[in-house]
Amino acid sequence: MPEKTVSRLKTRDLTLIALFTVLTAVCAWISVPVPAPFVQFTMQTFAVFAALLTLGGKRGTYAVTAYLLLGAVGAPVFSSFRGGLGVLLGTTGGYILGFLLQALLYWLMTAKLGESLTVKVSASILGLSLCYAFGTAWYLVLYVQMGKPMGLMTALGYCVFPFVIPDLIKLALAVLLAQRMEKHVRQR
């Protein structure tokens, strides 16, 4: 009878996941406050990119999930040292939840297409686009429910267009970090 293969996370994996969970929280605290209805500029996207590119799809997704769970239970890991379900269910919560969709897409693409730099960068860009789409849809629905109608182009102007270039720069920095860290965190 064949033995079942059980994939378990080693202490080293858990440590790296925790490290990138904390990095995401610290990057969320690095923010430029802007008036509503604009979305705050933070470094969270860099941390998500860095976690996925450095740890890989599986461990990177675990780090993003741990970050979201910490925030959901009230730990002040989101921008402006906020936490709780209220943040996740608020107008910008869709972008934070979109990080999980981004991570899952990255994991799926790299599992199916391989770990080449082209696949990783493509998965990161497509994941970011998915995060933007989900977050913007969430934002629009909540604004309409509050009786403040807003068009798609206006929402994109508040929530996406100002972030595209900075997020692509964050992706480039995360790629550089991941390449430097590769030999230290590679699966053994």
Task: Report a brief summary of the structure.
With 188 residues, the chain is mainly alpha-helical.
Helices and strands, with pairings:
Blueprint: H1 11-29, E1 31-32, E2 41-42, H2 44-55, H3 57-72, H4 85-88, H5 93-113, H6 117-145, H7 152-159, H8 164-185
Tell me about this structure.
This protein has 188 residues and is mainly alpha-helical. The protein contains eight helices and two strands. It has helices at residues 11-29, 44-55, 57-72, 85-88, 93-113, 117-145, 152-159, 164-185; strands at 31-32, 41-42. The protein has a two-stranded antiparallel sheet. Strand 1 and strand 2 (41-42) form a beta hairpin. Helix 2 (44-55) runs antiparallel to helix 6, helix 2 (44-55) packs parallel to helix 8 (164-185) and helix 5 packs antiparallel against helix 6 (117-145). The mean pLDDT is 92.
Run of helices and strands: HEEHHHHHHH
Give average pLDDT, whole number.
92
Secondary-structure-based class equals mainly alpha
What is the radius of gyration computed over CA atoms, rounded to a whole number of angstroms?
17 Å
Unreliable sequence segments = none
Tell me what portion of residues adopts beta-strand conformation. under 5%
Number of helices: 8
Straight-line N-to-C gap: 28 Å
Percentage of residues assigned to helices: 55-70%
Strand order of the largest sheet: 1-2
> Which shape, going by the Cα principal axes?
globular
Major beta sheet summary: 2 strands, antiparallel
Count the beta strands.
2
